[in-house]
Amino acid sequence: MSLSDIQARIHKAETKAGRAEGSVQLIAVSKVQPNERVEAVLKEGHGLFGENKVQEAAGKWPAFREAFPDTKVHLLGPLQTNKARQAMELFDAIHSVDRPKLANTLARLAQEIGRCPDLFVQVNTGEEEQKAGVLPADADAFIAECRALDLPVKGLMCIPPVDEEASLHFALLAKIAARNDVEGLSMGMSADFEKAVALGATHVRVGSAIFGARDYG
Question: What are all long-range contacts of 81-85, with beta carbons under 8 Å and residues at least 24 apart?
């Protein structure tokens, strides 16, 4: 697989779903990837990347952004409140807003800094104990709470359980988004992004299929 293969598959899925070409943004998930692989994808002209950890992104992206200033980087992994300020300065979007304490921290910092990245509320569609995210039953109230804090809620995000049909979870996320008038849907990864596109994804998160297998060392 390569970047161009994945882009071609996304375009094909958009066409099949009757969606406009370019309506789905590809987030190249660069976590734990060696810098030379990331640089190769940057040199191909790709401009949207995803990281899971604030610390790793802080060590990687300031230098890359000097060389590739139009690049956007999104935080996909869980965010601790003590890293919120650094995350807001580093990232263009945060996909893991999942609890009132974090929302309140982001709102306070947004007032201090004078700006806020785009925010996605993470929904734990599979109601898995080990996973972050608000429960589907609590999603409407939490989205309203974030909006009351003047936070820019641009989308919802989910990570379906590995042993369940992903489409059911994508459909659930799309339903929650529709009734809350939320446009963005961050859903779909290497194994299932075409299903996500069919169900309305605006952002798909693909890593190893672009960069190669990760080496966690």
Answer: 81/105, 83/54, 83/55, 84/109, 85/109, 85/113
**Non-local CB neighbours of 169 within 8 Å, separated by 6+ positions:** 125, 126, 158, 160, 161, 187
pLDDT of residue 216: 64
Q: Which two tokens stand for residue 105?
A: 């921290």
pLDDT in tens, 39-94: 999 999 999 999 999 999 999 999 999 999 999 999 999 999 999 999 999 999 99
Query: How far is residue 3's CA from residue 183's CA, in Å, rounded to a whole number?
Result: 26
Strand partners, 205: 27
* Tokens at 72, concatenated: 């956007």
Cβ pair 125, 136 in contact under 8 A: yes
Q: Take residue 32 and report the two structure tokens written for it.
A: 């734990």
Q: Under a CB-based contact definition with an 8 Å cutoff, are residues 3 and 11 in contact?
A: no
Q: What is the pTM of this model?
A: 0.96
DSSP string over the chain: --HHHHHHHHHHHHHHTT--TT-SEEEEE-TT--HHHHHHHHHTT--EEEES-HHHHHHHHHHHHHHSTT-EEEE-S---GGGHHHHHHH-SEEEEE-SHHHHHHHHHHHHHHS---EEEEEB-TT--TTS-SB-HHHHHHHHHHHHHTT--EEEEE----TTS-HHHHHHHHHHHHHHTT--EEE---TTTHHHHHHTT-SEEEE-HHHH------
